[in-house]
Design goal:
It contains five helices and seven strands; from the N terminus they run βααβββαβαββα. By secondary structure, the chain is of the alpha+beta class. The protein folds into two domains: 95 residues, Gcn5-related N-acetyltransferase (GNAT) (Aminopeptidase), CATH 3.40.630; 60 residues, Aminopeptidase. The protein has a seven-stranded mixed β-sheet, with helices on both faces. The chain is globular and about 40 Å long. The N and C termini lie far apart (37 Å).
């Protein structure tokens, strides 16, 4: 998948130095290198990179793992200076295209992260509860969101 300024491709081990750099700029409690290596080593996972077309440098990435019949979005980040340009949405859409539109997806997101919640809702994720004090850095709650065939169908039904 390609846009005007970035392309989506598989994430590889050689990308990890750039991933770690973005991760540290994007999150107050970044994943370790070992966590990314573990996820990349899972044959059933989907790990994607968004790379700048001109420079080849990573501008975002996504890590999604399969657990039985459910896909769990584990990590998605966009270089802070490149946010709000469609990179996160393109990564999520590529994940859904690769895993399948009829699959079930879940994720956790900080209750305070309104831009991310809005993005997930545009892609038919719906809130299904909270995980109290989920985030270790400040004890913030996480919203649990799901994308299922039902949430997609509900979005297609007009309000009456």
């Amino acid at each position: 998948m390609t846009s005007d300024s970035f392309t989506i491709r598989s994430l590889g081990y050689s990308d990890l130095p750039q991933v770690i750099a973005i991760e540290r700029r994007a999150f107050s409690t970044p994943w370790s290198l070992a966590m990314f290596v573990l996820e990349l080593s899972k044959p059933s996972g989907i790990c994607l990179a968004a790379a700048d077309v001109d420079t080849g440098r990573l501008v975002g990435y996504l890590v999604c793992s399969r657990y039985d019949t459910v896909w769990h979005l584990m990590n998605v980040a966009v270089e802070p200076l490149r946010r709000r340009r469609g990179i996160g949405q393109a990564l999520l859409q590529a994940m859904i295209e690769r895993a399948g539109t009829e699959q079930q997806y879940t994720l956790e997101v900080r209750v305070s992260n309104a831009p991310a919640i809005a993005l997930y809702e545009r892609l038919h994720f719906r809130c299904a509860g909270t995980r109290p004090r989920y985030y270790r850095d400040n004890g913030e709650d996480a919203l649990i969101m799901w994308r299922t065939v039902e949430t997609i169908s509900d979005a297609a039904v007009p309000d009456v």
